[in-house]
Write a structure and sequence with these properties.
Elements (H helix, E strand, L loop, with lengths): L2 H9 L244 H7 L1
Length: 263
């Protein structure tokens, strides 16, 4: 479909563009609110700054699309392929992520992710590995089964974030706000929580082999049944920490004996 035809038709009131062929189309800055693009092909399309509020994107292909600064608030993306799309500074407020393919999608601290989602409704959510989002505001987000190894979230806000079963091996949370972070059964092997605030965080059953908690605030944190093989706790604050059933073999630091006594 010709981009000029779409723009002209939309301007005349047409909203139904189902199954449109728009791969690599340049629609930057267009106002396409409430458009129907079900099953449309928008692979690698240039959609930066596009207004897609209330758009129907079900089963559409937006793989590798540039959606920077686009507004997708209240859009329907059930079955939408957003794999490897650029979602930096994108507005995804009130968007139900269930059923969308977000493998390798890139976000940043300005991406407005949906809050207060039903955690059980969130699909396998994979962010690109080795991404860096220092200072990102992810407070309260719910991302079940997140796969994002080697991610840098230094000084980020993850307060009350819900990340059960996350696979974030070798990730960096240096000085991050992880208060009441929910990471039950997560894989955080050799992750770096140095000087992070993990007060009342829930790491129950998590794999934290080789994790580094030097100087971290773990007051009231739950590490019950976690695998802490070789983890470091030098200078960590441990008042009220729970480690019942945890593997404490090889833990190091002045707190090692204290942890063993709490077990």
């Amino acid at each position: 479909m010709d981009v000029a035809f779409l723009r002209r038709s939309y301007g005349l009131g047409e909203r139904d563009f189902r199954r449109a062929k728009l791969a690599a189309a340049d629609l930057r800055g267009a106002c396409l609110a409430s458009i129907d693009l079900r099953q449309a092909d928008l692979e690698a399309a240039l959609l930066a700054g596009v207004n897609l509020r209330h758009a129907d994107l079900r089963d559409a292909n937006l793989a590798c699309a540039d959606l920077r600064r686009a507004n997708l608030a209240n859009a329907d993306i059930l079955g939408t392929n957003l794999s490897r799309s650029d979602l930096r500074s994108t507005n995804l407020a009130a968007v139900d992520l269930a059923g969308a393919n977000l493998y390798g999608a890139v976000v940043n601290s300005e991406t407005k992710l949906p809050h207060a989602c039903n955690p059980d409704a969130i699909p396998l959510y994979k962010l690109i590995a080795e991404a860096a989002y220092p200072g990102a505001d992810l407070a309260g987000v719910s991302l079940v089964d997140l796969q994002a190894a080697y991610v840098t979230l230094e000084r980020a806000s993850l307060q009350q974030a819900h990340l059960p079963r996350a696979q974030m091996e070798f990730s960096r949370f240096h000085q991050a706000n992880c208060r009441e972070l929910h990471c039950v059964s997560a894989r955080l092997i050799r992750s770096y929580f140095v000087e992070a605030d993990c007060q009342a965080a829930n790491f129950r059953g998590a794999n934290l082999c080789g994790a580094d908690f030097r100087g971290a605030n773990l007051v009231g944190a739950d590490l019950s049944h976690a695998d802490l093989l070789g983890a470091r706790f030098d200078g960590a604050y441990l008042k009220g920490i729970r480690v019942h059933g945890a593997n404490l073999v090889g833990i190091t630091g002045a707190a090692a004996l204290e942890l063993a006594r709490m077990r």
